[in-house]
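yo

u said u wanted the structure for the complex thing, so here. seqs first:
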Amino acid sequence: MSSTPQKRAVRKSPAERAAEITEAAREIALEAGLSALTLRNVAARVGVASGLVAHYQPTMDTLVASTFATIVAAETQEVAGLLSQQPGPPERLSLLVETLLDNSRLDVTAIWVEAWTLGRRNEALAASVREQMDAWQKVFQGVVEDGNASGAFNVSDAAAVAWQILGMVDGLNAQALVRWNGVNDRGTHLAHAVEGMVGAARGSLAAKPSA
Amino acid sequence: MSSTPQKRAVRKSPAERAAEITEAAREIALEAGLSALTLRNVAARVGVASGLVAHYQPTMDTLVASTFATIVAAETQEVAGLLSQQPGPPERLSLLVETLLDNSRLDVTAIWVEAWTLGRRNEALAASVREQMDAWQKVFQGVVEDGNASGAFNVSDAAAVAWQILGMVDGLNAQALVRWNGVNDRGTHLAHAVEGMVGAARGSLAAKPSA
DNA sequence: TCTCTTGTTGATCACACGATCAACAATGCT
DNA sequence: AGCATTGTTGATCGTGTGATCAACAAGAGA
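structre next:
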């Protein structure tokens, strides 16, 4: 932690300083949301004057957009990376749904939800949002198409079904953000829902007796 | 429209003025979001001084919260009212899903999404959000329980399934807010998903050959 | 007609925001 | 050692916010 007091910040290379600002922005966004990304806020965490942050960023809107992209892209890659270890499409889809609903990424969900609203007034952010949504949709679509090819699923429009699953996952996560208690077995219920959409047998995607 | 110029607003009864402010807030929220609910903004639409709005509202946070509740409760009642005309639970559930995904209420969806984020900093709003979510969930739960009783559905935890459907609908609507094109047949796909969750036969909830 | 109640005004305060930029000082180079 | 480069500062500007309140004036009751 770069604590409060410091007379003058040590001189650093532009690349290093830019990285510090990026990282500080990431932390602030995850803790307090994208709206907490102010010049003074970021500057304080890095331990520099507010002007320096402005000097490294053309506009705060772009910092918000790039911070969003950084956080969300990391999540996508992380989760997508888990898929390769699974044997077949049903297992991959099952893991995907199960993982995304495990409530361990609610801070990222909060950023998604905030971005949907902020994108209304921040065009750069809106573009990032669309881009990252497309990336997620492609992950789902790949799994659905593989399952179609292998005969495990029976879907006529894989792209549409992928969008649908993505929307459902987002909605359930957003819900968990507000109503975290009293709702049980999200994974199982969503698995049944997905079974209905991809034409898989009831129970074929529900959580296995783990380990 | 109460246009721009007016020397002094006509004197009105507190009840009438309060209603004007409430209505102006509703319109502004639907057009530009809850974050556009500022003292000066609301005052301008009503055609009074900013101080008057403050005089009628203890705090802007409470105006935001009550405006949210007003808008969302109206939507819930409107849609719930359509259900009574349907013969059985499958038809009711089908209509519910179909209606909520028809993209005619995206302005309300935008307010939901914004409220999820704003509730983080506005406790009154957060309470309203929970309250309205509960109301929606009860609507779904009622339909699911009726279907269970009639034998049309087979659900062990109607409350959980109701939450699940609600989350899915919200997520799909939020998605439509950002990505309104390229996604087809939301209603049909969600119907299949719901069939999977409630244990109904595939196709039994999908859109009928409408009138 | 006068008076008093009360709905209404708008200037004002303190604060926070993004952005700008002249002045500063640390560092590397000659 | 002296100099030039450049990373850094922080005061400052304009704007927007919620909130406050003394002053005003419209309207009802006497």
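The radius of gyration of chain A is 20 Å. The first helix of chain A runs from residue 14 to 32.
cya
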